Amino acid sequence: MTADDAPDQADADQTDADQADATPPDAAPGADAGAAPGAAPDADAGAGPPGLPAGAGAPRSPFAPVAPERISAAVIRQVEELILQGVLRPGERLPPERELAAALDVSRPTLREALAELERRGLVRTRRGAGVYVAEVLGSAFAPPLIELFATHDLALYDYLAFRRDLEGMAAERAAVQATPSDRAAIAAAFARMEAAHAARAHDEEARRDADFHMAVVEAAHNVVMLHMMRSMFELLRRGVFYNRDKLFSLAATREALLAQHRAIRDAVVEGRPEAAKAAVEAHLDYVAAQMREVGRRDRLEAVAALRLAAAERGRG
């Protein structure tokens, strides 16, 4: 550029600046500089297919605006998660209001609001003068008429044991892999309580500890669907819907065999041997099914013998 050209270039630069200043201050970025002031941008610029927002052709962001959350909603979510994970159990009493509010670091009115919504959802129940409890309805997935059918038909017993064999075998296999140190400690403690009841010849207590041991294994599998399904099944077992466990535990040889089987399950899960854990559960429940068939056979023989005895006594009279 020559010195004579410099004034012309300066004039051109000033003209560009004046044109830029003439652009309306509210014009959208990228708007056509030649458009009339206040005119809308070209509808085709950056538009996606008809019916989609502008820019729909570009990758969509996975993020969405975050809505403010009420504190009571956070309380509800925490209680729901504890129920789902099996930490809060059916029928369990929640801490007193003052203590629970302090633990959650919320006001008592906020806590009351959360508990009212949880009760509306059927997850907790308020007992006047007694406190707030996790709803018992969570303990059973079966309607009363179906439970009655289970209790009165032998077919249900063996299907129940077969179902448990499959599901608990899977749970034990998972537990051997997924169990945390706390899970392994819980399983060992559950077995120790069962062993203590066995040594004390407390048949009823041993039967209860049997169910607790199995649930400890299922909980260590860390699958919430499996957990709640098996909790429903064990609730029926505790209520004697399928069979009388006291009969099973009243036989000394049977009790010894059952204890050894539970020990094998414990060892396989705690030692992290998934295939052995599954096999131990399957062998255990196969044994229970065989023993229940034998109990049923003996009951039938006893019923016939009792009828014969009654007939003989009538004949002598």
Notes on the structure:
- It is a single chain.
- By secondary structure, the protein is mainly α.
- It has twelve helices and two strands.
- The protein has helices at residues 6-22, 71-84, 97-104, 108-120, 144-152, 154-178, 181-199, 203-220, 224-238, 245-250, 252-270, 274-316, and strands at residues 124-127, 131-134.
- The protein has a two-stranded antiparallel sheet with strand order 1-2.
- β1 and β2 (131-134) form a beta hairpin.
- α2 packs across α4, α6 packs parallel to α11 (252-270) and α8 packs antiparallel against α9.
- The protein starts with 5 loop residues before the first helix and ends with a helix.
- The model is unreliable at 1-47 (pLDDT under 50).
Helices and strands, with pairings:
Layout: H1 6-22, H2 71-84, H3 97-104, H4 108-120, E1 124-127, E2 131-134, H5 144-152, H6 154-178, H7 181-199, H8 203-220, H9 224-238, H10 245-250, H11 252-270, H12 274-316
Antiparallel strand pairs: 1-2
Helix pairs in contact: 2-4, 3-4, 5-6, 6-8, 6-11, 6-12, 7-8, 7-11, 8-9, 11-12
